[in-house]
Each structure stands twice: as structure tokens, then as C-alpha cells.
Write a structure and sequence with these properties.
The protein is α/β, with parallel strands linked by helices. The protein contains 17 helices and 14 strands. An eight-stranded parallel barrel has the order 1-2-3-4-5-6-7-8, surrounded by nine helices. The protein has a three-stranded antiparallel beta sheet with strand order 9-10-11. The longest helix is centred in the C-terminal third of the chain and has 18 residues, at 514-531.
């Protein structure tokens, strides 16, 4: 077993890294998944983790292994299947796989058991340090806090050289006390010190000043990397993160699209493009910025969390110009109103389209140009059939349609599908009737049934609930056009349902007929409900 002294080699290794290099720590699969209604299954996490690797993320916080058997399995699979990948990574290195744990030996051991399969792995442990948390949540004094933090880090350092410590609610903690805690855990073997603004309370000036104080006054600070972790409760997560970087942090904890607890976290795409655009900051990352848009779309598809149109960098309007003055300037010189190009973040500027005469080779060549490759033969066949079916009912199949087709297919976990929607017919008017045919993949039996509802969506839901015997309630229904300029645009429907235990599941459907897309989305949610083992919610209410 390694000792804390062995871990000191890791401290020196991290401290000697390039001072201009910013470590990108992505917590989409841990903190991001804690967004209400964003629960992901193991297969979905694996697909996202592979994309994070291609994106160039340095550290992937894959989950909270002690939370449930499902979380442990997901983190283990990511460590085994993704931890050794180098494809598409600009520096040719592998991605560090990290797990979160509370400051107890049981949590830390469970975390290590999950992440140890990756060539580079990290244990991230945390303990609250603010007086309000010590008094009301943990009910311990400051001395006991230091004692527990040191014990946790020492044990973690005996298992791996890469240990991160987070003083939860650091943004509201006493800075002098924080220095004592951080100095103690550095001595115990911590290689990264993460300073969370857990509740999004700080302003950029407050957070930047705190980081500066800690870097200058923590004994042994030169032996560890300081990290940011900012929440967006007051809309300042990105600004606070940037303030932390300017004042000495060389790791940022972020999520794709800024998803996360409550109002979310710092957006990866925002902080990366700030450093990419402002070269004068002297900060570089390993991120392949041309993979940003694809990553954003994938996470949105899997979680059902729509990206708002005016979202920085990846929103639909991020590169749209409607004002006549702006359009005139753009025609003369793009730099008049664009500080970064769409291509820089992976948004294609081409208008190449495909149709029903496009062949298999052309179809997959186009997908490869968009960044999609390495499909299994079964997946290839399924995708091409869907493409041809779409091309038969649309004048043209756009790039957005191709993105949506791939993402819908990726979001389905075929081995866990029980029901498939074969056909749907609606009769609307004073009485709304839905006639549906579904097949059970386990038995091979197909069933046709009809139901009356208060509107076509309710009729579809009632019919599907009756055939599948699903005890779930529709709680949320969203519909949007994948490409909104033509009347034959594909419709994307996202539904959320809850079962008798109040566990929530998300389903996604895609079709030129939005009511058929509704049926697909609802069947998807039912399949997830049938295959999902509810998470054991023994996670602390607030984590870093």
C-alpha cells in the first residue's frame, strides 16, 4: 500500500506543470447529472465520456460511486473503457477518471475501487468548512473538521497519488481557517485544492480575492494546484471562475452547457472560449474547440435539457445576425460583429444537404465529416434505414437533421428496450382517439389498442399506458423543430414521466410528425423506467 509520502511525488509532479496550462475538469456526469430530471444510465454516460475524451477534457468526474450500485458500475465502466483512449486528443494523453467521495474511509475505498481501472485516476473527497455547515449539518467544531479532512486525504493518498480535496462551501468559509485546512491536507497528500462557491453566493471580486488570499497564505501552496468550482445561482459562475483563474487557479471545474444543481455550474464552452479568444490571458487548454458544439448537442439530447437560444457559444442564436446594420457589417467583414467563428466551435458554415437519392457511402462520409464514426454494423444499418425514411418525407435532409438522427439513436439503449412503437394513428375532433401498435421485444408479441383522451397527446399516453401496463404519469412535455425554416422540419419531443415512487425518467422522440415523435418519446421513457434501478439517494443534499 502506498503511503502519504509516496503521494508527495504526485504533488511535485503537478506543481511542476506548465504555469500557462489550465486543467479542464468536467463534472457533467456527476454534478451535471444532479440536475432535476437528468438521470443518465450507464450506456449514456459511456457515450458522453467518450465524447469528453475526444473534446480533450483533462479530468472527467464520472460519478459518485458510493451513491448506488448503478453509479459504481458507470464509473467503473468509464474507467475501463474510456480511461485508456487517446483518439482525437490534441496532446495524445489519456483522460484522468475521477470519482467523488465523502470524507470517510468507506466512501473513499468504494471510489478507488471504481476508478482504479483507468491508467490515470483520481479520488476527489470533500468536507464542509463553513461555520454554518459545521454547526448545523455536521455538528462538529473546527478542530474536528481539520482532523477529519486530514484522515480522509491521508487514506486517499495511500491508495493513489492523485488526490483532490474540496472544502465544501468555501465561498462562505473563514479564509484564515481555510488556510489551516488546506495546509493540513497538502501535508497529508492532496495534489489539487478545489475551492467551491457551493451556493453561488460570491461575486467575482469576492471569489478572486479569496483565491488570491489562499494562494498567498496557505503553507505549501506551491505543491498543489488550486481549482475553481462555481455555481450559477446569481448568474456569476463563469465570471467567478475567470476571476479564480486570473488570481492563480490552474484547474476549472465545469459542465457541458452549464448543467448542474439548481441554476447549474460554470459552462465548459464559455470558460474555454474566453481563454481561446483572449490570448492576452496567457492561458491554454487541451480542448479541441471544434468538438464543443457536438458535445453540447449530445449532452442536451441525453439529458433532455434544451440549450436556450441565446446561450453563449452554443445557443441557436450565438452566430445569428438579424439587425440590418449588423448584417451589413458581417457582409463586409465578419470581424465587425463576430469575435469567434462558428467553425471554431464546430458549427458548420456549409449548407450541404442530402436527399432520397443519397447513397450509403455518401451518408456515412457526411456523418464522418460531422465527427461521427466507429459505428457498429447494427447501428449503421439502423441509421441508414432511418435516414432513407426521413428522406422520403422531407425535401432535403439538413446537417441539423443528421445530428438529430445520430443523437436519437445514441440516446436509445437498445439492449434495454422492452417496447417498440410500430404504428400510430390519430382521429382528432370532438373526440380524440389514438390507435397504437407496439411490440414487446422480449416476447415477440405485438399488440394494437386504442384510447380516448383529452387531446391527441393524452390519447397517445393513455393508449401506451394501457398496452404496456406502465404506472407512470406524464409530468413535462416539450416540442421543438430541429430545423425551423420549413414546414416539413423534423419535430423533437422530450417527455418526462414519474413512477409510483416519484422517480423521474426522460424520453426523446424524433419525427416529421410531432405526434408520432410524442409516441416515440413516451415509449422511450417507459423503457427507461422498466430497465432502471432507482438510485439510492444517500448523496448529501449539497456537494461541492
Amino acid at each position: 500500500m502506498k503511503t502519504a509520502r509516496t503521494g508527495m511525488k504526485g504533488l511535485r509532479r503537478w506543481a511542476s506543470s506548465d504555469a500557462t496550462k489550465l486543467v479542464v475538469f468536467d463534472t457533467t456526469l456527476r454534478d451535471g447529472e444532479q440536475s432535476p430530471g437528468c438521470t443518465l444510465n450507464t450506456q449514456e454516460k459511456l457515450v458522453i465520456a467518450k465524447q469528453l475524451s475526444r473534446l480533450g477534457v483533462d479530468v472527467c468526474e464520472a460519478g459518485f460511486p458510493i451513491a448506488s450500485d448503478g453509479d459504481f458500475e458507470a464509473v467503473s465502466r468509464i474507467a475501463e473503457d474510456v480511461g485508456s483512449l487517446t483518439e482525437g486528443r490534441l496532446d495524445g494523453s489519456t483522460m484522468t477518471i475521477c470519482g467523488l467521495s465523502r470524507a470517510t474511509q468507506k466512501d473513499i475505498k468504494r471510489c478507488h475501487d471504481a476508478v482504479k481501472h483507468a491508467p490515470k485516476h483520481r479520488i476527489h473527497t470533500f468536507l464542509a468548512t463553513s461555520d454554518i455547515h459545521l454547526q448545523h449539518k455536521l455538528q462538529i467544531d473546527r478542530e474536528e473538521c481539520i482532523k477529519r479532512a486530514v484522515a480522509a486525504v491521508s487514506f486517499a493518498a495511500s491508495l493513489t497519488e492523485d488526490v483532490e480535496f474540496s472544502p465544501e462551501d468555501a465561498g462562505r468559509s473563514d479564509p484564515e481557517f481555510l488556510c489551516k485546512v488546506l495546509a493540513a491536507v497538502i501535508e497529508a497528500g492532496a495534489t489539487t485544492l478545489n475551492i467551491p462557491d457551493t451556493v453561488g453566493y460570491n461575486t467575482p471580486q469576492m471569489y478572486g480575492s479569496l483565491i488570491k488570499y489562499l494562494v498567498e497564505n496557505t503553507k505549501g501552496a506551491d505543491r498543489a494546484i488550486f481549482s475553481t468550482h462555481c455555481h450559477n445561482d446569481l448568474g456569476m459562475a463563469t465570471a467567478n471562475t475567470l476571476a479564480g483563474v486570473v488570481n492563480g487557479c490552474r484547474q476549472v471545474e465545469v459542465t457541458i452547457n452549464g448543467i448542474g444543481e439548481r441554476a447549474g455550474n460554470t459552462s465548459l464552452e464559455e470558460i474555454v472560449m474566453i481563454t481561446d479568444t483572449h490570448k492576452n490571458l496567457g492561458i491554454t487548454t487541451n480542448i479541441n474547440t471544434e468538438q464543443i458544439f457536438r458535445s453540447s448537442q449530445m449532452v442536451s439530447a441525453f439529458t433532455g435539457m434544451q440549450v436556450q437560444a441565446n446561450k453563449a457559444v452554443v445557443g441557436a442564436n450565438a452566430f445569428a445576425h438579424e439587425s440590418g446594420i449588423h448584417q451589413d457589417g458581417m457582409l463586409k467583414n465578419r470581424e465587425t460583429y463576430e469575435i469567434m467563428t462558428p467553425a471554431r466551435v464546430g458549427v458548420s458554415s456549409t449548407s450541404l444537404v442530402m436527399g432520397k437519392h443519397s447513397g450509403r457511402n455518401a451518408f456515412f462520409s457526411r456523418l464522418e465529416e460531422l465527427g461521427y464514426s466507429d459505428f457498429m454494423e447494427e447501428t449503421k444499418a439502423d441509421l441508414f434505414v432511418k435516414f432513407k425514411a426521413l428522406a422520403d418525407v422531407k425535401k432535403v435532409v439538413t446537417e441539423n437533421d443528421l445530428h438529430a438522427l445520430v443523437q436519437e439513436d445514441s440516446s436509445r439503449v437498445k439492449e434495454e428496450e422492452v417496447w417498440t412503437l410500430e404504428s400510430l394513428q390519430l382521429s382528432a375532433g370532438n373526440i380524440n382517439t389514438a390507435t397504437v401498435e407496439v411490440c414487446n421485444k422480449e416476447t415477440g408479441n405485438c399488440t394494437i389498442d386504442a384510447a380516448i383522451g383529452n387531446g391527441p397527446v393524452d390519447a397517445i399516453v393513455c393508449a401506451l399506458n394501457r398496452i404496456t401496463n406502465a404506472s407512470c404519469i406524464l409530468t413535462n412535455f416539450e416540442v421543438k423543430a430541429v430545423h425551423g425554416e420549413d414546414s416539413d422540419s423534423m419535430g423533437e419531443v422530450i417527455v418526462r414521466v414519474k413512477d409510483a415512487n416519484e422517480t423521474r425518467f426522460m424520453g426523446r422522440g424524433l419525427d416529421v410528425d410531432i405526434l408520432k415523435a410524442t409516441g416515440k418519446a413516451y415509449i422511450s421513457a417507459i423503457n427507461k423506467m422498466l430497465s432502471n434501478t432507482p438510485r439510492e439517494m444517500n448523496i448529501p443534499e449539497v456537494t461541492p
